[in-house]
Every structure is written in C-alpha cells, then in structure tokens.
Amino acid sequence: MEVMIYPTYEEMSREAARVIADLLNTKPNAVLGMATGSTPLGLYRELVRMHKEEGLDFSRVTTFNLDEYVGLGPQHEQSYHWFMHENFFKHVNIPPQHIHIPSGTTSNYHAFCEWYEKRITECGGIDVQILGIGSDGHIAFNEPGSSLMSRTRLKTLARQTIEDNARFFARPEDVPIYAITMGVGTILEARRLLLLANGKNKARAVAQAVEGPVTSMITASALQLHPDALVFVDHDAASQLQMRDYYMWIQQNKPGAPKT
Ligand code: GLP
How much distance in Å is there from the Cα of 160 to the middle of ligand 1? Predict the structure, then answer.
C-alpha cells in the first residue's frame, strides 16, 4: 500500500486526477471504476478541467460505478446515477453506452448483480477503481461484516451510514436503507485501487483501514491485501496514522528512488 499525504484537499484531488490521466495517456481505452460521495468531487472537477483545457480524451473509456441506492431511479436527485451525470459524465466525452451504474430499480436484483459482474469481466476488468471511505470504514456499500470475498449484491445499510448520508436528503426517513453494491472481492480484482479520504471525520477509519488488522469489520482494510493500492489523504484524514512520518518520508524520497 502506498500512502500519500497532501496538505490540502485540492492538492490530493489534483494528484489523484494525475493518476487517472497518466493511465489514459498509456491506455486510452481504460476501464475506470467510479465512486460517489463528496470525497471524489474534487477529482472529477480536475478531470473535467483536464478534458476541457488539455484535451484529456474519454471517448474510448468504459466506466463501472460501485453502487446505487435501491428504490431511486436515475432521475432522482439523490441517486448515484444523477450524481455521476451532474458531476462528471455530462462534462466529458464518455459514450453513454460505455457507462455502467448498478440499477436501483431493477425487477430482479440477483440477475442484475450477476450481469454486472459478467459485464466487468467482458470489458477486461477494471484498471483503476476509485474509492472513498465511510466513517465506519466501509468501501462502496460494503458495511461492517461484509465478506472480504463478497461480490456485487444487495446490502442493507448500517444506521451510521444512513445517518451520515441523511445530510443529502430532505428528511432522514427518505434515506434508502438498501443499496446494490460491488463486493469487496469484486473491488479487489481491479488492477489498481485509489482510495481518497479527507477531513478529520475520516481519520479514524483511515487509520483502521491502513494500519489496523485486515477485518471484515472495516472493509477498507481489505486494501492491505491488494498489490497495488494507493491511499491519498489530506492532513486531517492522516492525523491518526501512527506511521505518518514514515509515509511522508517515503513520499519525499520517492523521486530519488532507483528507476526499475
Ligand atoms: C457512501 C458511498 C461510498 C462513499 C461514502 C463516503 O456510503 N457508498 O462509496 O465512500 O459514502 O462518502 P463521502 O465521500 O461523502 O464522505
């Protein structure tokens, strides 16, 4: 795992965008795993800027989103379909038929989940999966207790997650209690993982994920099992990392390391 600590959210977002842009420069038909939530907004803004100002091309890119609320159609303003369209897809040139987001309104969730997994494989697997982290340490909607080998499926959300996400809804009772989500096992199959976290309220979850034991109680800790996991955090989110100085030391000395 490579932990990179940035002084600000903006800098963290810019560097994360650089990872995606470098991938697209070497592999223009890359498959990107997308995440929602407030954390990746800065990354999406920067990618949109690169598209508009520097001609970063998404025309051959395919995307798979991590999750969606059950019961919310794509026109619902709190759906992840809507979020992705408003914050990213409508500003770049990804062909609509290349975009995959779990359906929150399918009539057969089981069949849909199987199809979603199959589709990821057919497209060659995910090159980089962008991830946020919930305050309870979850990735996507893999709440505490989710098997580290889980696949795309329907999940009941934890109370903590419902409370955290209530800020986006008019009334707390409007927050859906079910979601469809890629599993931890699905996520671990991506060739590279890029987890982003900012703010003090994520500091504990980040420390547990990076330095705690690998446990299904903190599903982000599964990143420790991945051979190419990047963790980009701002100072606040890094504040409870015990090895913070060491990560910064590595980051500082990285440019001088022998090239392979
Ligand atoms: C939701 C999403 C996660 C996201 C998390 C944190 O639970 N399913 O993918 O990482 O929220 O969201 P935020 O970035 O807004 O803190």
Answer: 12
Instruction: Give per-residue pLDDT as tens, 213-242.
Output: 999 999 999 999 999 999 999 999 999 999
The set of residues, in sequence order, having a beta carbon less than 8 Å from that of 28 and lying 6+ positions away, is: 57, 59, 60, 61
Number of domain units in the chain: 1
36 within a domain of the structure (yes/no): yes
Measured CA to CA, the distance from residue 48 to residue 73 in angstroms comes to 25
Token couple for 140: 């996507």
* Ligand 1 contact, 134 CB (< 6 A): yes
CATH number of the domain residue 49 falls in: 3.40.50.1360
pLDDT in tens, 114-163: 999 999 999 999 999 999 999 999 999 999 999 999 999 999 999 989 99
Instruction: Supply the range of the domain harboring residue 114.
Output: 2-254
